[in-house]
Design a protein that fits this description.
Length: 325
């Protein structure tokens, strides 16, 4: 399986690195190369290629479309980093820190345009549907980001509201990436809808796992500070459930730590994690996360596709589900 994934990674990396995004002015195009060279898991283009492989063998034909979803994803990261005032991305300076916010905005805009170019260069008789569904997905990602920013100032965020936000911000792009492979392979609408649903369910599970890892990951394996969401009072599923379930002393303690502007970060993480432990928040999160994962994996079995390739897709997801960072 890893050999196959490495082959697909080589195809998409070659497409991303060799594609001409533009030349002048240098300040506009250098940031695009910079953020794309930072790497990442290339999850979304891999999903497009694995999805196409369910139905057809000539996976190389998906290279431009697969690159398009990765370019779009990095465009959203570039703009999100500005909104979040994030100093680092994958351990390196963010584009707005290395250059400035105006350059990051413009370079991101060009990335969106180039994502369209890459999609339009794809070999598909379904190109109109490819673009129309991409437009829907792109707008939903923006909706998710706006909800996420709104939640920062909202006093109360419900579980339903949070799950809808992560569906829009994270899961819909995974859904589109899988569906894109089906569209390029000329499979029918029912199969494409099922591929999209698989991606969304797995995407929901991934985001809940990220929430969980931020609190409970092994620091040596995690790659970033454990407890960052607690320190920032970020309204994750864990905090939302704790606010809903806490009573008495736990409720008072949680309110106290959320109200502080000057505090010892290590102590805050320890105290809030202790509240989560007493309320069983970890188990609640794991149960919901696994529900989404199991639903997505079960839906793969419903696909009218080659069994060998369905197994490859399931194996890929299982590897990701079991990650520790």
């Amino acid at each position: 399986m890893s050999e196959l994934i490495n082959k697909y990674l080589e195809i998409v990396d070659q497409e991303i690195s060799s594609y001409s995004y533009g030349v002048e002015p240098v300040e506009l195009y250098e940031p695009i190369k910079y953020i794309l060279d930072l790497g990442g898991k290339r999850l979304r283009p891999l999903l497009t290629m694995l999805s196409y492989a369910l139905y057809k063998d000539d996976v190389e034909k998906t290279s431009k479309a697969a690159a398009a979803v990765e370019v779009f994803h990095n465009f959203t990261l570039m703009h999100d980093d500005i909104m979040d005032n994030a100093p680092l991305r994958r351990g390196k300076k963010t584009v707005h820190e290395k250059w400035n916010s105006n350059i990051a905005i413009l370079s991101g805009d060009v990335m969106l345009v180039r994502a369209y170019d890459l999609l339009l260069e794809s070999e598909s008789k379904n190109i109109k549907k490819v673009i129309k569904k991409f437009n829907k997905c792109a707008a939903e990602v923006c909706e998710g980001q706006q909800f996420d920013m709104k939640f920062e100032s909202d006093e109360v965020v419900s579980e339903r509201e949070y799950l809808n936000m992560i569906r829009l911000k994270t899961a819909v792009l995974l859904g589109y990436s899988l569906e894109l492979g089906g569209l390029l392979a000329d499979t029918n609408d029912d199969q494409c809808d099922l591929l999209n649903a698989i991606g969304e369910n797995i995407g929901m599970g991934f985001q809940l796992k990220d929430d969980l890892l931020d609190v409970y990951a092994d620091q040596a394996k995690f790659g970033k500070q454990v407890g960052g969401d607690i320190i920032a009072n970020k309204k994750t599923f864990l905090l939302i459930k704790a606010l809903e379930l806490a009573k008495g002393e736990d409720k008072q303690k949680l309110a106290y730590w959320l109200s502080l502007t000057d505090f010892d970060p290590e102590k805050k993480v320890k105290e809030v994690t202790g509240i989560y432990d007493r309320l069983g928040i970890k188990t609640l999160t794991e149960n919901l996360m696994n529900d989404y994962f199991e639903k997505g994996i079960c839906q793969i079995n419903q696909l009218n596709a080659r069994e060998k390739n369905k197994t490859q897709l399931k194996d890929f997801f299982v590897q990701l589900i079991n990650r520790e960072k």
